[in-house]
């Protein structure tokens, strides 16, 4: 029997003007932005729709902005006959997945991701952490290279296992630079330094995780209406307390996106619906398995096309 997974993008997918079309046309989507503005105490909607881009890119802004855009599209999608059997999200996108499955309210989630972004920005002083996308390397070989570099130059580890041939590494500037220079030792073709404000999903984020843990403990987590396949283990989870604990670990652990998609396919998913700005996940999913169906919900037009 055919199964559907709703998947939600993470940081990097943000764009000035995202979700403005559903904000203007769908009252429930507009209400999400209004709730976000009130919950955060500043006009997030104005920043999302008008920019400037350099402010929207800041981690503490990009995270609540992307969550809000995804949930606004989700609200606009309701009533179109699509319902998920599973949900998942890439890093920050996991919070959108938790809203979609009823674990968190949008209001609680937007407060959490605003703080998550702030904690991640503040965990490592500027200029001390870095990330780079490595193309063409095998996971084990690149992991071994990171271990070798960590002993010699500074901590660096796998951060995002995105799809075959695309892995992001994260850690100290010296460690990441060394991996970039030695990437061919792991069979990689090249490595591209990323414009990010910190070494996300690395051990250097443990302070941020501890601070986030305190905030997560204050929020109510409900049992999900459908299983959430989580980044840390790439396994379906239904326990609210386990989800809470895994959100803490997620901050400093690798995002196992390829494993997540493969697990969903093993569970019988043959249709992936990416909900939110851009189409990054759709591209990754097609590289993982070109035989699955991928639907992008990133505009009012894409929702109306489902009717």
TrEMBL record:
Catalysed reaction, written as an equation: holo-[ACP] + malonyl-CoA = malonyl-[ACP] + CoA
Gene3D superfamilies hit by this protein: Malonyl-CoA ACP transacylase, ACP-binding (3.30.70.250), Malonyl-Coenzyme A Acyl Carrier Protein, domain 2 (3.40.366.10)
KW Acyltransferase (keyword) present: yes
Keywords carried by this UniProt record: Acyltransferase, Transferase
Pfam families: Acyl_transf_1 (PF00698)
InterPro entries from the UniProt entry: Ac_transferase_dom_sf (IPR001227), Acyl_transferase_dom (IPR014043), Acyl_Trfase/lysoPLipase (IPR016035), Mal-CoA-ACP_Trans/PKS_FabD (IPR050858), Malonyl_CoA-ACP_transAc (IPR024925), Malonyl_CoA-ACP_transAc_FabD (IPR004410), Malonyl_transacylase_ACP-bd (IPR016036)
Stored PANTHER family: MALONYL-COA-ACYL CARRIER PROTEIN TRANSACYLASE, MITOCHONDRIAL (PTHR42681)
Name of the protein described by the UniProt record: Malonyl CoA-acyl carrier protein transacylase
Organism of origin: Paenibacillus forsythiae
Source species taxonomy: Bacteria, Bacillati, Bacillota, Bacilli, Bacillales
């Amino acid at each position: 029997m055919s199964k559907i997974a709703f998947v939600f993008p993470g940081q990097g997918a943000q764009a000035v003007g995202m979700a403005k079309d559903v904000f203007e046309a769908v009252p429930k989507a507009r209400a999400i932005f209004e709730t976000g503005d009130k919950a955060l105490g500043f006009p997030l909607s104005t920043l999302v729709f008008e920019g400037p881009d350099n402010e929207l890119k800041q981690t503490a802004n990009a995270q609540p902005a992307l969550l809000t855009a995804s949930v606004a599209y989700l609200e606009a999608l309701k009533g179109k006959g699509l319902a998920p059997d599973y949900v998942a999200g890439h890093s920050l996108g996991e919070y959108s997945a938790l809203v979609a499955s009823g674990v968190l309210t949008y209001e609680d989630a937007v407060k959490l991701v605003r703080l998550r972004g702030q904690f991640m920005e503040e965990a490592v002083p500027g200029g001390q952490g870095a990330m780079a996308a490595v193309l063409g390397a095998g996971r084990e070989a690149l992991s071994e290279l990171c271990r070798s570099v960590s002993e010699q130059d500074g901590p660096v580890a796998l951060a995002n296992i995105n799809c075959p041939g695309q892995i992001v590494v994260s850690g100290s500037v010296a460690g990441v630079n060394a991996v970039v220079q030695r990437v061919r030792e792991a069979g990689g073709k090249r490595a591209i330094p990323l414009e990010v404000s910190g070494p996300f999903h690395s051990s250097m984020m443990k302070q941020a995780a501890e601070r986030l843990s305190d905030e997560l403990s204050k929020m109510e987590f409900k049992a999900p209406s459908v299983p959430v396949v989580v980044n840390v283990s790439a396994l379906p989870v239904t326990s609210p307390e386990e989800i809470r604990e895994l959100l803490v670990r997620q901050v400093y652990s690798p995002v196992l996106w390829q494993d997540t998609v493969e697990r969903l396919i093993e569970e019988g998913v043959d249709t992936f619906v990416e909900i939110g700005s851009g189409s990054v996940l759709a591209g990754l999913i097609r590289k993982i398995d070109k035989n699955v169906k991928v639907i992008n919900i990133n505009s009012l037009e894409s929702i109306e096309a489902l009717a």
